[in-house]
Amino acid sequence: MVYEKQTQVRAGKNEFEAFIDALILRIAQFDSSIQHQNAKQCVFRIYRDVRFSTDKSPYKDHFGAHITSAAKKSEIHSRAGYYIQIGVSGTMIAGGAYLPQGPWLKAIRQEIDMDAASLKKIIDSEDFKLYFGEMEGEKLKKPPKRLSG
After folding, report:
1. Same domain, yes or no: 93 and 20
2. Phi and psi (nearest 5°) for 137?
3. What is the distance of C-alpha 103 from the center of its chain?
4. 76-124: pLDDT as tens digits
5. Which of 3, 52, 69, 110 is the most buried (most CB within 10 A)?
6. Residues 19 and 43 in one domain
7. Closest residue by Cα to residue 20 from 84, 95, 97
């Protein structure tokens, strides 16, 4: 039983990696910063950390990849990129910066502050709403101190 599950997971991972390699080629047509990437650099491990969990199943229930311009996996959260997750409960596609820290977060906020109207125009457009729906996620309780002053 365990061997059978392991074989299925490996086959699924190989198929997912082939998909990610093909996706990288397509994205590189409009974002050349990721053209040097391959699935092995972008795909997350399928094994769960079960040390402190009551659920001891060894595998995650999804495959995930974060495609960025980072040269090493350890740097992927320091770059904006493309995230895809395919699993039992569905599919998720996301883009942008994930939990940016310190100076990077400040730089993002400054860029938005300098031209908020352009961002608002994009997220209020019918095309954006058609493909992405309404903006979701966490919000600041109060705006950050004035950035451009």
Report:
1. yes
2. 115, -170
3. 20
4. 677 899 999 999 999 999 888 888 888 888 888 898 889 999 999 999 9
5. 69
6. yes
7. 84
Task: Find, among 136, 132, 26, 8, the residue nearest to 63 by Cα.
Answer: 8
* 120-145: pLDDT as tens digits: 999 999 999 998 888 877 888 887 77
pTM score: 0.76
Q: Which residue range(s) make up the domain with 12?
A: 2-98
Same-domain pairing of 64 and 107: no
Claim to verify: residue 82 and residue 115 sit in the same structural domain: no
Total count of domains within the chain: 2
How far is residue 59's CA from residue 78's CA, in Å, rounded to a whole number? 26
Q: In this predicted model, what pLDDT tens digit does every residue of 19-75 receive, in sequence order?
A: 999 999 999 999 999 999 999 999 998 888 878 888 888 788 899 999 999 877 777
CB 135 within 8 A of CB 124: no
Q: What is the DSSP string of 68-137?
A: ES-SSGGGGGGS-EEEEEEETTEEEEEEE-SS--HHHHHHHHHHHHHTHHHHHHHHHSHHHHHHH-S--S
